[in-house]
Amino acid sequence: MTVETSTRVSPLSAWQDRLARLPAGLRVRELPFLTQLTLRVEPGGAAAKAVEAALDTALPGPVRAESSGDVTVVWLGPDEWLLVAPDGRRHELLTRLRTAIGEEFATVTDVSAQRTTLALSGPLVRTVLAHGCAIDLDPRVTPVGACPTTLLARAPVTLVVRAEGASAVWLLVRSSFASYLATWLLDACTEYRGGAG
User: Fold this and answer.
1) Which InterPro entries match (predicted)?
2) Which of 17, 112, 164, 165 has the fewest CB atoms lying closer than 10 Å?
């Protein structure tokens, strides 16, 4: 009897060579298989306070993201957050949060397979994203820690600003849209090839 083990394949595994050929002013790499947990909890309640103590960070307010160690907490809605952590942290984080919540009313759900993450960095990030995103990425409007959920080239994304001037961002995108978004990024960079940036 043959036992088959599942092999994880990232949504953009076939794209790495193409994404590496972007202009010098824009670096794109996929961060596959990140642990992603959706937390639903009443803000300010006992369960929320227990979660904050367990994470050693406050749950961020509207359109904000906060990091504590290697866990980033992204606001998604009035009572919903996404916790993003390195691969391999799923079980430990689920256990820690569910233990902290105890009998209080809250839910923690593993959604790691829903999305992949594109890490963009470099001086061309804001310029390229402006081709397909209506969000103003000026640092006065979207400073470090901003996390608007928006459309990028008609693909739904959550954009997490990780460095000043939006020179480093994460794009959290549904796995089914990842190839489309990679194609769009390659096309949007066409005019910047040849030494620009």
Assistant:
1) SoxG (IPR007375), TrmE/GcvT-like (IPR027266)
2) 17
Give the pLDDT score at 173: 98
Rounded to the nearest 10 degrees, how much is the dihedral formed by the CA atoms of 34, 78, 148, 74? -30
Nearest Cα neighbor of 107 from 79, 127, 148 is 79
Which tokens in the block code for residue 56? 């050693």
Place of tokens 């050693």: 56
Residue 28 buriedness (CB in 10 A; 0-12 / 13-18 / 19+): buried
Is 111:36 a contact under the CB 8 Å cutoff? yes
Please say if the pLDDT value at position 195 is more than 60: no
Residues 156, 149 contacting (CB under 8 angstroms): yes
Q: For residue range 30-75, what is the model confidence (pLDDT) as tens digits?
A: 999 999 999 999 999 999 999 999 999 999 999 999 999 999 999 9
Q: How far apart are the first and last CA of the chain?
A: 56
C-alpha span between 97 and 132 (Å, rounded): 37
**pTM across the whole model:** 0.91
* Cβ contact 66:157 at 8 Å: no
Which domains does the chain carry? 13-32+114-192 (3.30.1360.120), 35-110 (3.30.70.1520)
Question: Are 126 and 166 a contacting pair, CB within 8 Å?
Answer: yes
Tokens coding 101: 């919540």
